[in-house]
Amino acid sequence: MDAPVFDYMRRYNFKKLVLCNDSDSGLRAVIAIHSTALGPATGGTRMWTYASEEAAIMDALRLARGMTYKYAAAGLDFGGGKAVIIGDPKRDKSEALLRAFGRMINQLGGEYQTGEDVGTTLDDMEVIYSETDHIVTLPVHCGGAGDIAPATALGSVEAMRACAARVWDDPELKGRRVALQGLGAVGWSALGMLLEHGAQVVVCDTDEAKVARAVKDYGVQSVSPAEIYDQDVDIFAPYALGGIINPETIPRLKVKIVAGSANNIFADEERDAAALDGRGIVYAVDYVANSGGTILDTDRFRKGGFQPERAMANVRAIFKRSEAVFEIADREGISAYLAANHMAEARIEALNRVRLLG
Ligand code: NAI
After folding, report:
1. How many CA atoms lie within 13 A of 98 on its CB side?
2. Which of 107, 115, 199, 213 could form a disulfide with 173 if both were Cys (CB 3.0 to 4.6 A apart)?
3. Domains of the chain (ranges plus CATH)?
4. Where are the strands (E) in 44-188, listed by range?
5. Segment 42-59 mean pLDDT
């Protein structure tokens, strides 16, 4: 293997990697536990047809580490973990496979808890839930928060408003022009919110039916997916894919702000974050901006059980957390991306120090 697993685990201080096999159901899964410093390692289960076993393992490791930062930066008491099931969700998923996976999670005794991700659904979580209690994302009828996309959208719009305050000394989005990429669960919800704020939005999606619906329901303008980067607007709002901020797209952007919900927006974090900084474009760090859904989802684990008002106040606090990221960036003379990482690391360190003393 080119990138030995133990080297990677040691470099980034991983705790554990679990390989799961169930020959009867065909389950082959990887559970990566990056950190339990703040609480149980938490992160969704991805089901995907990986090109190799190494690719599956490295994906689980990379994603698990990202979750440590996401929870720590969101002020939540969870560690970072992630699971991947190797296989085609349309062809290989079965009740037996999901239940076998649920038993594997259960055997970890709460060290890892899961939720939905690419290739898995809320219905799948309900099946896994029949084997283990260690599930974060659940339908409302199982005691979960149900659809979390609107909370993710709200958090991302709050992050966008914090960016606006940084650029124009005014968080209001009224009259601001926004190019919105992706009208899926989160993008659609964000579109409604942006229009309520009085923004002018131009949309795109590879799914023409979604675009037609946005034009019909909201009277917004639309462009083709290829043209979205070239719009003469104030804000580029990614709500679709990762990797879209890269050396090909950055020179095309005419905007002052990049803010949305898409995960891993940079093709290369350090290079592309620096390039945006170089062009004076303010951006919302993805894992801070898109933490609203996970904040809502995990509120039921806090003292007093699920309290929607507390959860939504914490989602809105993404505005303040985004401002805190900018303050660190200014103070330390670093990119917002690194500043968010420092904010997360500082919280983990501080709380562990408290624990050691206590
Ligand atoms: P989704 O799958 O419902 O929507 C994605 C949309 O993007 C689809 O409508 C798809 O047709 C469109 N799309 C795909 N390729 C495109 C392209 N090249 N140009 C324009 N549109 C394109 O996904 P969802 O749940 O709305 O998530 C959106 C992003 O936010 C993803 O990156 C996801 O990882 C991230 N995110 C979502 C959270 C949630 O609560 N659902 C939480 C945190 C992050």
Report:
1. 24
2. 199
3. 5-66+79-142 (3.40.50.10860), 149-291+320-343 (3.40.50.720)
4. 45-48, 79-86, 112-113, 177-181
5. 95
Whether 137 and 297 have beta carbons less than 8 Å apart is answered as: yes
Model-level pTM? 0.92
pLDDT in tens, 175-234: 999 999 999 999 999 999 999 999 999 999 999 999 999 999 999 999 999 999 999 999
Could you give the CA distance from residue 45 to residue 336 in angstroms, rounded to a whole number? Answer: 28
Token representation of residue 48 = 């995907």
Question: Which letter, b or e, does each residue of 151-170 get, where b requires 16 or more Cβ atoms within 10 Å of its Cβ?
Answer: bbbbbbbbbbbbbbbbbeee
CA angle 122, 126, 128 (to 5 degrees): 110
Distance 56 CA to ligand 1 centre (A): 21
Query: 119: CA distance to ligand 1 center in Å?
Result: 13
Q: What is the pLDDT of residues 254-297, one digit of tens each?
A: 999 999 999 889 999 889 999 999 999 999 999 999 999 999 99
The owner of tokens 């690719």 is 55
pLDDT tens digits, residue range 105-126? 999 999 999 999 889 999 999 9
Q: Which residue has the tokens 């149900």?
A: 146
Q: How remote is the CA of residue 187 from the centroid of ligand 1, in Å?
A: 7
Q: Can 82 be counted among the known catalytic residues?
A: yes
- Residue indicated by tokens 């698990």: 64
Set 70, 82, 93, 210: catalytic member: 82
Residue ranges lining ligand 1, Cβ < 6 Å: 148-149, 152, 181-187, 204-207, 210, 225, 239-241, 261-263, 290, 293
Cβ atoms within 10 Å of 332's Cβ, excluding its own: 11
How many whole angstroms separate alpha carbon 51 and alpha carbon 255? 37
Confidence of residue 353 (pLDDT cuts 50, 70, 90): confident
What is the number of residues in the chain? 358
